[in-house]
Amino acid sequence: MAPAGSRMQEMKRTKIIDIFSPELIGKEVSVMGWVRTRRGNKHVQFVALNDGSTIKNIQIVFDLEKFSDDALRNITTGSSLHVTGRLVESMGKGQSVEVQADSFEVFGTADPEKYPLQKKGHTLEFLREIAHLRPRTNTFGAVLRVRSALAFAIHKFFNERGFFYLNTPLITASDCEGAGAMFQVTTLDLNNLPKTEDGKVDFSADFFGKSTALTVSGQLEGELGATALGAIYTFGPTFRAENSNTPRHLSEFWMIEPEMAFYDITDNMDLAEDFIKYCVNYALDNCMDDLEFLAQMYDPELINRLRHVVEEKFVRLTYTEGVRILEESGHKFEFPVYWGADLQSEHERFLVEEHFKRPVILTDYPKEIKAFYMKQNPDGKTVRAMDVLFPKIGEIIGGSEREADYDKLYTRIEELGIPMKDMWWYLDTRRFGSVPHSGFGLGFERLVLFVTGMTNIRDVIPFPRTPNNAEF
């Protein structure tokens, strides 16, 4: 191995994403990364190096008149290198430029007998078992770069529109959705729990003096921010303790939840459509190399579908109209369709993919299948809810105009048996200067799932948390 001289150490590193610039051709460069492949003959060795900045590799050419086989023995798939050399135009297929190596240093070796990614063609199921290493694959490098770009786009969208970023608590005493499937947070000794006289756990002895859990949503606290700052958004982790082992569910996932004072349901729908188109368009403009790779490997229609979403106006119709279309379709669904049913993914995707062939926003759902905080319509049966339905996904956004009337909200909380002692602060926003306001929630992983064309939500988050899986 060639020693790392002071000149090699002093040269500024060039990221591989920047190395394809024409003005660098003929100049000496310094690159660092991990070996993807090594091949060659007795005269020359070719190493594909990747540093994670792009899906593209840079080819490193080792002339065996300069380097012996023994010096190169530790350059194996998975090892990490620092290489200096001259960037030249490549005569080979598949790359425009390559680095003619002058010197190199092996930062870290990877035993080819033990490195799990030594061979190609691993299944996604296998890669979930080694989540600590799967970001080094082309697939997960691409997914994580797209995920990062989408996160930036979200902050950019709201910042450009005058929204304030609000951090809502992860530990809460309220259940926003009323689902009850929450992760308990406690410092009590589980082997010696204090009990009340009626045999229940005495949470007065706990850290917060009451029962607390990880949040399922930042919405309720977000409304407090909106009724003071006008327009806010949250972007953080949320948690559901549902025992759901499906390709669409995680126990820990990220949510974006804007809340806007003085917005009605129409304003809410307009914002949701603009928002999701902005995010998809940002990915098309900034992640094309990764999207083309994912389209080639997993979903040939991916890029056309993304462009279609950006270009088409979303259909808007009521839940009642949607149910009528489903009932009259003649299609045989696994789950029955009737007015009052909570629509399943198969129903939502039929409306989007088969009937309208573009995204759909459904509104005015039966109040019995929606959350307590949604504004009630004059018919007494429906609420001003809205769900944005996407191809391949089904529901990607859920939201509503919020109930601004104190008496109606109070009555609904009582009807559902939600403890009033946990809701006094929320009701105060309706007692003091209540205003029309709206908001929605977007599951970040579902957005990433749609934009990348992946089919399992476990494959669009770095370290998935699902039932019986919290290893990494």
Descriptive account of the structure:
With 472 residues, this protein is an alpha+beta fold. It has twelve helices and 16 strands. It has an eight-stranded mixed sheet. The chain has a five-stranded mixed beta barrel with strand order 1-2-3-5-4. Strand 14 and strand 15 form a beta hairpin. Helix 3 packs across helix 6. The protein is elongated, with a radius of gyration of 27 Å.
What is shown here, in short?
By secondary structure, this protein is of the alpha+beta class.
Poorly predicted residue ranges: none
Main beta-sheet strand count, sense and barrel state:
8 strands, mixed
Strands, count:
16
Instruction: Give the CA-based shape.
Output: elongated
- Overall mean pLDDT score? 94
By helix and strand content, what is the structural category?
alpha+beta
Order of helices and strands: HEEEEEHHEEEEHEEHHHEHHEEEHHEH
Our Rg estimate from Cα atoms comes to 27 Å
List the helices and strands and how they pair.
Blueprint: H1 6-10, E1 28-40, E2 44-50, E3 58-63, E4 80-89, E5 97-108, H2 124-129, H3 138-160, E6 164-165, E7 171-172, E8 184-185, E9 212-214, H4 219-229, E10 231-239, E11 252-261, H5 265-286, H6 288-297, H7 302-311, E12 315-318, H8 319-328, H9 345-356, E13 360-366, E14 382-390, E15 394-401, H10 406-415, H11 424-431, E16 437-443, H12 444-452
